[in-house]
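Hi U.,

Before I forget, here's the chain from the pilot set. I'm dumping it here mostly so it's searchable later in email.
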Amino acid sequence: MIDFVQFDKKLEKDNSFQKKIAQKLFLKINKRTPITKNFAELLRYCISRDVGLMFAPLRASKTKKHVFKETTLYKVIRATLRKAFWKPGEDIPDQDIIDALSSALHNCKDWDGGRTARSKKTVQADTEVQHHGY
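Structure:
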């Protein structure tokens, strides 16, 4: 988390670094896929699963003290998505971006094989129940 805080502070204070990151993110956007999927891909590119698990999308909770919407990285991703999907007379509504953020962070537990591990635990638990006759 310390590395992310340093990264985010550098994004905030160093405009050339911020532009460089925004350009890299822009190149990763696939305009044929929905904003939600793009947001998740950009987030995975920038942060690890462990860092993602420490963040709540919009407001802090008992288990997640950090709020991703308050980070500079969120602002850079939001601006990059708006630039990529911009059409004359249309702008991406804030709610669409917030929904994409929420979806990406709620699913970060499945990054890096997390879904497979959870599936194996479920199958193992089901097998144990069947063998014990419950």
